[in-house]
Amino acid sequence: MGRNKHMSDVYIGLGSNIGCRESYLLKALERIDAHPAIQILRCSDIYETEPVGYVEQDAFLNMVVAVRTGLSPEELFEFTQQTEKLLGRTRDIRWGPRTIDLDILLFGNEQIRQPHLEIPHPRMWDRLFVLIPLADVYEGGRLPGNVTLEERINQLEGKEGIVRWKEIRSRKGLERFVN
Q1: Residues taking part in catalysis
Q2: Which value, in Å, is the radius of gyration of the alpha carbons in the chain?
Q3: What's the gap between Cα 19 and its chain centre?
Q4: What pTM did the predictor assign?
Q5: Tens digit of pLDDT for each residue in 9-29?
């Protein structure tokens, strides 16, 4: 795998709503942590969230991880897709149930518009289940559109559908992922 000449700070959203949801999040974190070109910087708390889009499914566990990587956006996207497949993700129903979902939310200051990859993630600005855990780990200042995460979160309704499920700071087994 090639590497960029510089390292980029990247934010990846993780979600699961099939089986042992926390176990799938941890397995994805372990795979991310094991990659030689990715360093985990910070993990958000884990939040339980109501499904969006296709609502006839179980609640999700969602979190966001901040990483530093020398991979290109394309290489990181390939890695996240491989990780989803390895952990049993199938794509039967749009926004449907999944063992694991990994979305590249932000990749440094990159703006990418391709059929298979958009960065920043195009729907993240309207999804509290992404923005609330992102606020736990984001250190990038103002977002595109010149708003802060808090300002955007306060503009959206539906916060009652997102509940802190587990504080990572007190979670044994995740110490190596948390600074």
Answers
A1: 89, 98, 101, 103
A2: 15
A3: 19
A4: 0.87
A5: 999 999 999 888 999 999 999
